[in-house]
């Protein structure tokens, strides 16, 4: 049950923050171009890194089921919130699927980088 709470909870949080970041870029006319892409990737990396660290996992293999679940939540929420406006063609865009892939990949990268620096994700000797 705890697994499901973490998958759904963090999946919704990741989606909500990304939606908020995208909305802010649209409101200020910055939704196109390299700057927009960089901002969205940085936001996604930071939020998925925070989510991964909150799991206090000892190995990347422990994090993968969560990251796949977070990507599935994003796919589902896109279906609920975006398909009514943009249609099912949303899922035919390769960039959308790359974004879902980043939801799976970025937490693993964050885990890798935090271990290299000796952060709290590295198991400590007691």
The class by helix and strand makeup works out as: mainly alpha
The share of residues in extended strands comes to under 5%
What percent of residues adopt helix (DSSP H or I)? over 70%
How many helices? Answer: 5
Query: Alpha-carbon distance between the termini?
Result: 29 Å
Q: Tell me about the largest β-sheet.
A: none
What Rg is obtained from the alpha carbons, in whole angstroms?
Answer: 15 Å
Instruction: Give the total of domains.
Output: 1
Shape: globular
Mean pLDDT, all residues: 85
Number of strands: 0
Along the chain, the helix and strand elements come as HHHHH
Which stretches are low in confidence, meaning pLDDT under 50 for 5 or more residues running? none
Report what the structure shows.
- By secondary structure, this protein is mainly alpha-helical.
- The chain has one domain (2-117).
- It is 77% helix and 0% strand.
- The longest helix has 26 residues, at 2-27.
- The radius of gyration is 15 Å and the shape is globular.
- The two termini are 29 Å apart.
- The model has no long low-confidence stretch (mean pLDDT 85).
Draw up the topology in text.
Blueprint: H1 2-27, H2 34-54, H3 60-81, H4 83-86, H5 94-117
Key attributes of the depicted protein:
single chain; mainly alpha; 126 residues
